[in-house]
Amino acid sequence: MSTAILTGPPVPGSPLEGELRALGFGVRVVTEPSQTPSALASVPAGERVALVDSRFVGHTHSLRLALTDPRFPAAAVPGAVTAQPEARPALAHALDTAVRGAAPAVPGAPLAPAAHPLRQPMPAEGGAPGTEVLPQTDTGDPLPDRLVGLLDADGTAVHRPDLGSLVAAVPASPQQRNEARQSVEAVDEEAVRLRSAVKARDGFFTTHFISPYSRYIARWCARRGLTPNQVTTASLLTALIAAACAATGTRPGYVAAGVLLLASFVLDCTDGQLARYSLQYSTLGAWLDATFDRAKEYAYYAGLALGAARGGDDVWALALGAMVLQTCRHVIDFSFNEANHDAAANTSPTAALSGKLDSVGWTVWLRRMIVLPIGERWAMIAVLTACTTPRVTFVVLLIGCGLAACYTTAGRLLRSVTRRATRTDRAAQALADLADSGPLARGLARALRPLGRALPRIAVPLLALLGAAAVTASAAFTSYGSAWPVLGAAVYTLFSALAVSRPLKGALDWLVPPFLRAAEYGTILLLAARSDTHGALPAAFGLVAAVAYHHYDTVYRIRGGTGAPPRWLTQAIAGHEGRTLLVALLAAVLGGSGFATALTALAVLVALVVLFESIRFWVSAGAPAVHDEGEPA
Prior knowledge:
The chain has 26 helices and seven strands. Strand 5 and strand 6 (80-83) form a beta hairpin. The strands form two sheets. It has a five-stranded mixed β-sheet with strand order 2-1-3-6-5, sandwiched between helices. The chain has a two-stranded antiparallel ribbon with strand order 4-7. It starts with a strand and ends in a 13-residue tail after the last helix. The chain has helices spanning 16-22, 36-41, 60-67, 88-100, 143-153, 174-185, 189-196, 204-223, 228-246, 251-278, 283-310, 316-340, 349-357, 361-370, 374-387, 390-418, 425-435, 439-447, 449-454, 459-477, 484-499, 512-531, 536-559, 567-572, 575-589, 593-620; strands at 2-7, 25-30, 49-53, 57-58, 74-77, 80-83, 168-169. The model is unreliable at 102-139 and 628-633 (pLDDT under 50). By secondary structure, it is mainly alpha-helical.
């Protein structure tokens, strides 16, 4: 239960108390400022608390944005401030300063641009005229606004939501109060809320073919008490049914699979829009959304491969190749973003050119379509499934994703070599975590640290590339069952250890994790394909899926600010170099069905270990709420 403390005498006829109760707050009223500290202290320490001026006039959604968003420890709009348990001490200190006069009051800091629309008119939704929020009077600022100023002065981060055309004000006179009420009535609050439920940056297909109606599905879900995680789960179940339909290998099954895959994507958009519409953000929800997207897509690949096999066409290598390519694309995205998002002097001519192109409308959509984001990709897969064969679907998918990978990687390489950024220790640690080095690589890295420090920066990604080339080339071009892939894996282990023996702060060091992913996944794919053994490729598909899950799990722990998985987990599943060396050894020692059986057992073991630790962590970690609005997946 959250508590809202109304400061000042209640205003007759004001709906404020009812609005706060509708938002889930218990309401207490204090008529004298001196009563406020004791009222705040009486609220249990583990609860969110809000202080709202009783004269507040504004939209309910303005209060919702400021007072109920779980992502921010402290937040405010004019006339209202809130603090979650971690920010309660700072709020109590600011209140004591403001009420008891322990220090001179600090004038309220400027809020979001929409806080004073008299000076900055903004267009309203649905053609309504520009709305206005009344400015505060020059004297006697409301207590919540003074507290915001004190929190700022104390170094406490206070989130100020962008209200747009929404109203939030504390009128100082009856005339101003009447004007503020008229401003509230002039804006279609529900239209604004629906508009803000849609992700600000999304792909062409999603923006123009899904979001125009999925936002209304999100509202329908909100009004029936459904949560984003429930919608995410429904999307997963729909995709799994689609995969089962594809596995029938019949034309009606393929058509049904394509339709259900699109339905799953509609629900996938709806869960995020529901989270934004009702502000139901959580770290668990972000993790479910991200990992379920991959689970849905890769399960669908498996369904297509099973369906093709029923018709006598073996496309498991293509299915596994599509999964490897898509996963490596994501690793490139993650690594580049982690290496540069907090870098100092993070500018480049290429980035400046991209910014200029954003001002040319048609280029924005073209560039978003070229990268083949999830909306375009799933639409393409659905249509090709319904109209063609699994083989055609995978070939077109591989070509499209390959071209997209070349385009995005080339742009990031240009940005990296033309910027003079200083990478942080946090970024270097994130890249080291994404590398997923096991006991062998870690031990060798410690032993080789003096040599690694003596190498030029450009040598770091080159070492990772050479090691990846050594193991994949030996798997591809030597006879199956020979010792050459084992030797290639040993060279790969040595080179990858040398690559991570120094902090990954170079301009191109973000390439190290993608090279390592490509080496491990590619080696498994090549050895399984060349074994010419029944069941080897499906087993390899399962192994890569289990390892990829572990890598995605690592990414979202880092993004959630909780750090990488525990060291014991990486050691238990041997790290990228240990798994690559083990698979090469199994291919050399075991022949025929023995290799497929060993891959199956390894896949099951890795899956059980990583799933156990991942589910334990996300269910019980209590990590802060997040919501990822990043690149279209």
